[in-house]
Amino acid sequence: MHENNVSYVFLLGFPNLHSYNIILFLLLLIIYCFTICGNVIIIALVSMSKTLHSPMYFFITQVSVLDILMATNILPYLLHIVLHNGGTMSLDACISQFYVFGISESSECFILMVMSYDRYLAICNPLRYNSLISKAFCGKSAILSWSLSVLLVGLHIIRIYKLDFCGPSLVDHFFCDFPPILKLSCSDTSLILIQAALIGIIIITFPFIMIIVSYVFIITTILNIRSISGRQKAFSTCSSHLTVVCIFFGILFSVYVIPNKEHLLDTNKILSLLYTVVIPLLNPFIYSLRNKDFKRAFLKWKLNYN
Question: For residue 2, is pLDDT > 70?
């Protein structure tokens, strides 16, 4: 029989940093504002500028939408937790937060994989690029990425709701992630852990392998270009994406793939803070500061606005 003695959970946040609450609150508030503004500017520039109406920039806007979703899902309540030395939320709200988090992270994995395929065709097979990477392909890729994420993470949610939650209702984290939710349960979690491993292969490992394969071909092609300027130009078209991939998947593997230990909990919190808070802030700057088209579009928009 399904039993549930936990209706609310208390997120501890960062108990070791209570003396720095105000500073941490202001820092996180600034990060949230810059994250939203940066990603909204990226979306606005791509939608308004005709020079940015290409598949690569369409996928960048998808990443921006996901970063806004991630930041809005995590940061507002994190600000509450920091200001009040912890925070209480219902178990349903906690699981819902994990669901939205899972969808945004999973979708970003798939979108980054599709972007690597886009860069592979642009550099390794440019003659077929326009015929293969069409508007229809972009739309279908985005819809499929979101749909797969909703479905796969939804399987987790269904399994979580079948668990018995007996407490204690303390969550030693700053948001409702998968491992902390499992710690609230007194059920046998072996099946859900096996399911998590299988879904993790689809969501994290498979996209990462496909990205690695794409970049093996990309790097091989770039090295075969005779002129140094040609190599630099080819590499510049994928350097931003490669930077995001290295940071994003590096942290994901550190938190979810490499076995965790209790004494590394604070380290995992810091890593989680990086991919839920810092990466959504950095992505717009990584994509825009190293891209001449974005700089031109921004300057043109600024001149028209003034």
Answer: no
